[in-house]
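User: We ran a pulldown and think these components assemble together. Before we commit to crystallization trials, I'd like a predicted model of the whole complex to look at. Sequences follow.
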Amino acid sequence: MPVAVQENQPSSSKVNGRTEEEEDLEIDYSEIEEKYAVSPLDGFDNVLVVDNVPVIDEGKKKKLYERLRSTIAKAGAPLSGTPDAEGNYSDMVMPWDNEKGESKGYMFLTYPSAELATHALRCLDQVLFGKNRLYVNRFGEIERYASMNIEEGSTPKNWPADSQAVDKEHLRSWLADPQGRDQFVTFRDTTVEINWCGRNATAERAVEPNPKWAELFVSWSPLGTYFTTLHRPGVALWQGKSFSEPHRFTHPGVRLVDFSPCENYLVTFAPEPIVASPQDPDSPPDPRKFAPEDEGNHIAVWEVKTGLLLRTFPGEAPSPPPPAGVDPKDLPPPRKLAWPLLRWSPDDKYVARCLMGSQISVYEAPTMGLLDKKSIKIDGVLDFDWCPDAELSASGKENLLAFWTPEVENQPARVSLMAIPSRTTPRQKNLYNVADVKLHWQDQGTYLCCKVDRLNRSKKVNSSNLELFRVKEKNYPIEAVELKEVCTQFAWEPKGSRFAMVTTNEPNAILPPGQLPKNNVEFFHVDAKKGIFRLMRRLENKTTNSLSWSPKGRFIVLATIGLSIKHDLEFWDLDFTTDDKVNKNETDPGANMQLLATGEHYGMSEIAWDPSGRYVTSTASSFRNSPEPGYTIWDFKGQDLSRNQLDKFKQFLWRPRPATLLGKDEQKKIRKNLREYSKRFDEEDAAEESNVSAELIAHRRRLIDEWNAWRAKRIKELAAERQKAGLEAIPAVAQDEERETVEEWIEETIDETEEVVMS
Amino acid sequence: MKLWDIKTGECLKTWEFPTAVKRVAWSDDDNLALCITEQRSGYQGAIRVYEISHEGDCKNQPDEPITEFSPIGSKATVAAFAPLGHEIITGHESGKVALFDAKTGEEIESNERAHSGAVTDLQLSPDGTYFVTSSKDKTARIHDTKNLAVIKTFTTETPLNSACITPLKPYVIVGGGQDARSVTTTSTRSGKFETRFWHRVFEEEVGRVRGHFGPINTIAVHPEGKCFASGGEDGYVRVHWFDDSYFRSRPYGDLEPAD
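Assistant: Here's a predicted model for the assembly, 1018 residues in total across the polymer chains.
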């Protein structure tokens, strides 16, 4: 063994310290051994070792061989051997553990020549085989790696000295802000800025803006870790405290982007079909680029951390041709699924896609293989959504998805819950006279509301009803709430059991300009005694068409968006009390609802709460052709803190926060000791206030000094120039002394009467 | 271009040009006047400088300019004489601000990116060492006459047509408004046709004066700083005299620039 030989080499220091006799006995063979040493690569340079092959038993051996060979061939390095009678190959050997009756998880591949093996090494390393990533090495190198003399902390030879491990910036550093501030990003014209939202909504720059950010649009990942910018060549993710060193995902023409809920995967969509990236035929295919088999697709799925392209999908399927004899114009406009087309289960394990009318396909991440190799056939399925409860699977339960199918022939319409991966349907509900169904999950997955638009006898939509599923209770009880009007907006209270909706009598009325719609806003809650959903409060004759709950619940903003003459916001508190205790009024549950304030923001197009529920922003975006772009920050009470009218303003986005790591008990404790904390914060606020004004005065003083210095210099220069030109000094601006005061007395006789007094 | 006698209202001289005159300006010693003519088919936009004679009844004025030149590139929209009358400051349609030699027409200095929209007005400070420009890009800026460097920027939310510098108080007055043709009829909101007062050192808005119901086209301040006048698309010229409180008020306390 060559390794052993090296160990036996006598060191020179040893030699020096010994007598001659001893030296004679220990003849130095190293020269000879070096000369005749057999390189471990010799003779085996056409053999590769493949690691991380699935461990299987005897029965699956043949199948594994076939699949492996096809994978290897696909990767571009086919083996030429043919199977013998037992299905074994001479160029593919898999060591076997006879005791266990299993394979050992690695295998040897023999190629006809060293060049082919080198090529195969490049092609096969890191290739995915099912869930396993194959690791390929030369046979000889295994020996070398195994005998590498590496101690703790030592670096291999020739390792560049400056390639010290560099600590990456903490991805969630912004959460450790001592003041607990939130960040937001603004996009105006060609500048994208990331700011802290300080006390009273004062913006403070969090990071130096990068001019590269501003191209198409920007967004945050769902937990706020990554700042996403869209560019013509693809998507870039920026992270850490300084938002430097982007991860890039090359997808030319990308228009839409979506993250999986746990931020493990990224989905990109481009309206133009994918064109394979040009690749060097000699190098292995780059797993971060599009391959020829991806051509023509529109959607790409990427792994965020590695940047690897996992799979591409075709875009929306073309709508089926109209039946013969029917004018396509008579048909209702084809339904379109809303983005995202690929929808992730809350734990990132599955991603599903609905092929409208026929099936739902569920893929397993990260292999992106079809679950159980077949789609779920559901005739007529039109829409679906995952239950957003991430704790569901953590507590050992299966993921749930809800979907609905419309009425066909003699079959009623149906809303169903399906568990994934078992594909069981624990609950179904039949519905009649259905025009449309919208699925609304409560954010913790406790409730599912199916908003059903009902057709009347003349086949017009004139009422809605709600089918409320209690998903966390046994047998999934369903409760129906019949409405006399059509519900146009619906929103669950986050982390709560209340919901708000906008209803109207005339859902499709086209209003003449200047006329306002008549909407009603209704609030429902769970009746404490009966345990069913009951109307809590109804606000009539509103123009409201948008509902925005605070992310912490309790507060809601009702807004009128998109009308030309009304742009109001109403800030409501559902549990308003003057003292600290919440006293529920049993007889009138809506009594504690209080309108805190109303506001107006001309031309606003979006409403957004900050993740802590302290601030609300209304944004007028030039993306939506708002006549007065800009944004306004309000506090939750409806006080406008900062109004910013900015030309060419495009986006305002709060940075999302991940879920709190504190348990329920800890949160309770904090709430209990709130007074203690607030005392400290009040002090800090007061200190900051005096600090800020001092800073501002210093800043202004500096501006004045700069201005005065510049003016003095210019005045002196001008005086010198005038002197040179032979002119007198600048004449002082004529002041009061030169002014002439003209006083004019005007006497006017208004009336003159003469009275002769007779005495 | 016409020369008038202010005292009598008599027209002393008329110069005829093939295209419309867009702007006229006096030098600070009253000996020179300039005019910018519009660029039209066949005629380049030109800047002409005339020597104005103060002899006799002033009716005997030279017909030919002492200098005539056409700036290369974007056409000039506004101009003024720099102090001493040796140079001409121009504002251009592209947003460029430049300095020309009044005798040779040679471009001495230029700032191509002074504004991102057409420069609509250019007015000098009382001593001429700095000047303010307004632009369709919704900003007004103070520039150094020497090197054309931007000293201050005032950002509003409406295209600006005019800006001027107030003597006595450290403000600039700006005005403008949406173009008459792009004013939306549905919006009941006014507020864009106001003259705005900005602190010229702190770049902060300090006040607004309402009144016009159309875009403001021009603003001029009294040389002594006692009043200002604004002319609007609505057909009115509004002359506002400043109250005593305007001179007394010190919105920033002791922080006031020397001039």
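Residues 1-19 of chain A have pLDDT under 50 and may be disordered. That may be worth checking against your pulldown data before setting up trials.

User: Thanks, that helps.
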